[in-house]
Amino acid sequence: MNKIRSMPPAVGAIQDWLGPRFLSCLILCACLGFTYGAWRGAADDAERQMQGDFDFRARELLGAIAARMQTYIQVLYGVQGLYASSDFVDRAEFRHYLSLQQMAQHFPGIQGIGYMRLVPRAQRDAHVAMVRREGFPDYAVKPGGERELYAPVVYLEPFDGSNLRAFGYDGWYEPVRRATLERARDTGQATLSARLRLVQDGDGRERAGFLVALPVYDNQRAHATLAQRRETIRGWVYAPFHMEDLMAGLGGVAERVLDLEIYDGDAVAAARRMYDGQPGAAAGLARSMHRQIDIAGRRWTVLIGAGPGFDRSAGDKPRILAWAGVLLSFGLAVLTWLLARSRADARAALRQADLLTAQRRAGEARFRSLYDNAPVALWQQDWSAVHAALAAPELAGVADLADHLRLRPELVARLAAQVRIVGANGAARAQAGAGDAAAALSLAQNFDAAALPAFARAVVALAQGAQLFACEGSFVRLDGVARQNELTLLVMPGHEHSLDFVIVTTLDITERKRMNDELVLLATTDFLTGLPNRRQFMARLDDEHARLQRDIDSCASVLMLDLDHFKTINDGHGHAVGDAVLRHVAALMLDGHRKVDTLGRLGGEEFVILLPGTDLAAAGVLAERLRQRIAATPLEVAGGSIAVTVSIGIAAMRRVEAGYDGVLVRADKALYCAKKGGRNRVETEGGAELGLAASS
């Protein structure tokens, strides 16, 4: 452990001077200075941003006004073209053309589109009479009186509502409208009128309006010069507008945050005001713009202003930055003080950490010593690649992982190949026959190909969060010898979510399994004949009886065999020959039995056969065939041969019986009948004889 060297007194004095309080004040002053600079810069940037945003929105709003008016003027040019392409446009043609334009849907704010016909005083009466003949008996030129020229509205679409008030109104009568018509006539261009009150406004409400007029000339005559235009003028197509309807929804978001005022002409006066988006808001404007735009020969003065709310969002940034800087400055000052104060604690903690590190290393050394010298085979494995594969999309969504792996052995093999052997102690290397060649070890020394189903179960258990899993399997030593083992997998604490540190203990149980198999064989097999003994046969008979009770359509039969005159063979030839006869009969029984049948030796010279799925008739055929085979195959011994015959009793299993004892009793009775009837024969329960041979 490194020793902390003592400091010179001068250095200690400097450290005392640069104590927590001084450092905290220094950090606080520096941070506040930086905060002020950042706030000043952010405020300047916000001002430039807000002014730029205001200028952009204002220009966008001016462009929208001009674009909308130009669109409506283009509609009037279309109506002018209708007159230019025809010698005469009647009312129906006029209405049909404008109905196709769908003005209410595509041109909001426009009151309608009409036609004013120029009528000299001499033709006034004829004009009135003609319009009345069209179905308007009350038609008259309004207002009445004698004038040199009249310009009454003869067509106006839509021809309903307030537009009916304008029907027949003489636009030449009123000075503002007359000046507009004259300017349109003389220039041949669209002309926008001064501020006026529309004829449609009959409710007494004061609403600013204007007209846009476009001349219609005699298309058979030239109208290139001023004199020609005044000579060939026939009327005007025009459109009346309410200013507030025209402006509705024009600016979108900009209209809601900006105040818009429009004045007729160059002067800004209440009498010339045509539109005021937010009445009374001019006094509180933080920003404003004064612009003039020319539309159809008429100048409008536009005032655009932004109230305090326009700057609120951008102005919040400097304030937020200032408050954040102040809070951060105090926070850093407090943090500096805490860090300086905790310096001594950190040194003490460092010394403690060094002590703990030394203890941990000592513990690791002890663990490594125990690991390497343990008498049990220990394997250190890394399953992180398996964990990553299970988290992949193709496996992450599997509902039943165990069934999924069971149906895909190739996937289990790929997962097994991803397990990495990190280390193995001496006992594990000896068990695998590796010696010191630990690098040659693989998962096959834990799970070979035959044990991959057990490996799959281990994968499922660890994937579900189990920290401990035990199973039996088989492995292959490096010399190729297959062995059986017992495995315990332990996921080390803290590695459950990565599976990168798994300790596996293995125990070679090959000899134990062999001994167990031998014990099972001894407990279930007749040592002389190799057939199942009485206990094993009874267990199988009990299983078949349970199956019959579950499946009402199935059947089964039992054959009970007894060697004829076996005592004579034993007495005459000796017990060794008697044993040979028993083995001879067992071999003949095995040679002809079905895979589903169960053969057994009950004791002495008595054998039994269980025939699943076989009724009495079929069982009789099998019994007779077996009897004939045994009778036709004598046992060859030194000095000659010994004829062997059997008597067989047959009984059918009954599902209504509580146990299997009844079928054995009935089969034994049938066997007794076969013996009593002369031996070497087959009898069924109830006394029916199925086969007969000469009794010996």
From TrEMBL:
Segments traversing the membrane: 320-340
Keyword terms of this UniProt record: Membrane, Transmembrane, Transmembrane helix
Keyword Calcium in record: no
Reactions mediated catalytically: 2 GTP = 3',3'-c-di-GMP + 2 diphosphate
Record domain CHASE: where: 85-303
EC top class named in words: transferase
Subcellular location: Membrane
Entry annotated with the keyword GTP-binding: no
Pfam families (alphabetical): CHASE (PF03924), GGDEF (PF00990)
Record domain GGDEF: where: 554-687
Superkingdom in the source lineage: Bacteria
Enzyme Commission number(s): 2.7.7.65
CDD domains in the record: GGDEF
NCBIfam families in the cross-refs: GGDEF
Protein name (database record): diguanylate cyclase
UniProt source species: Janthinobacterium fluminis
